[in-house]
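Sequence in, structure out. Go.
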Amino acid sequence: MKYIHQREHLNEDDIVIIEASQTCNIRLMSDANFRSFKNGGRHTYHGGAFDRFPAKITVPSSGFWNITIDTVTRRAISVTRKPTLTHSIKIVRRS
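Output:
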């Protein structure tokens, strides 16, 4: 699976704000859950599928967090034409 990844040290109650050009899955995960996600295993996350932006996710606790964005599509993806996703990730620091 192709995805966009960014790792940040975030504090409890910080807000992750994502803008995207199309519907996408946005996940905020701990390091352990990100490892499981990368390996195709079970993982838990904050976020989900978003089709309205900006998407806002509040950080539940302080520490290192992984933000991933991947596209959602119902159509088969052509191997010659990749979906184009433009995005921005902004962190609002509360402390």
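Check: Strands lie at 4-10, 15-20, 24-29, 46-50, 55-58, 63-71, 87-92. Helices lie at 31-38.
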